[in-house]
Amino acid sequence: MGSFNRLHLIRQVDLFTLQLFLSAVEERQIGLAAVRENVAASTATKRIHDLESIAGIELLERTPKGVVPTPAGEVLARHVRTIFGSLEDIRAEIAAFTEGVQGDLTISSARSIIAPFLAHELGEFNRQFPLVRLVVHEIENAEIVHQVARGEADVGVFASAHELDLSGVDVQPYRRDRIVAVLPTGHRLADRDRITFADLLPENLIAVGPMVNAFRAAARRLGEDFEPRFSVRSGRVALSLVQAGLGVTAQPECLVGRDVADRVRVLELAEPWAERKICIATARGRGASPAGQALIEQLLDHPAGDGPM
To answer: What is the CA angle 178-211-135, rounded to 5?
Structure first.
């Protein structure tokens, strides 16, 4: 094969050939890639062979079961995905001039952020940009940044945590919230103004799903183990159990509604990790679409509750 030449690559390789190559990598068979792209298998085979000749290196390893990318093929596939992502960005930004802001916009966030904060903002956004089709994923906090990094969500709104891998996303601060302790009104600790996790740990500490890991980490720092007797998915369920005198809990203050706050005791949780930093994530190095940028600008201009960080 010949040596790699950038100018030769630009002149000789068309976008459709790159799409065929990417389809072959994803389908693991050139024949299936040809079906996917609606061309003859012989055409797909020749185009990919020509691409390898231009690159000067084998990009696909042929096996009896199909094809797998070589290390060089993996590199090319990664860059081709970036190229097509940039093309979609170009299309969306140009369309915004001629058609207005429109298209699909996928947002991933957690229940403890959607309910008190995002629901209102998304409603307002939908009224302002009716041509944008909103798709909302309610998922666990750790999965939010993964979806954004993988391109499965355009915008993620998540609570920052030390264990989160943020290498694949760009992050902007959005707002602050805090975790509070909630006790029955007659509890022996209810007359305090503030409380520590060490005070809560000996109690029947009711964990709402996403808080279990935070409680376990806090317990480990105290040299203790945390295995909840009550583990529930809903903050409102946890509050109802506390109200019934069955235990104590800790959860975001924004989820403790005024209708419940009058029937339980809400205390400051005096722990560094009790302050939640809520952030906005987009895929690293890739600008948001016009719709995504419009939503981010709205969130930063009109943060609810305590206000921006």
So the answer is: 85
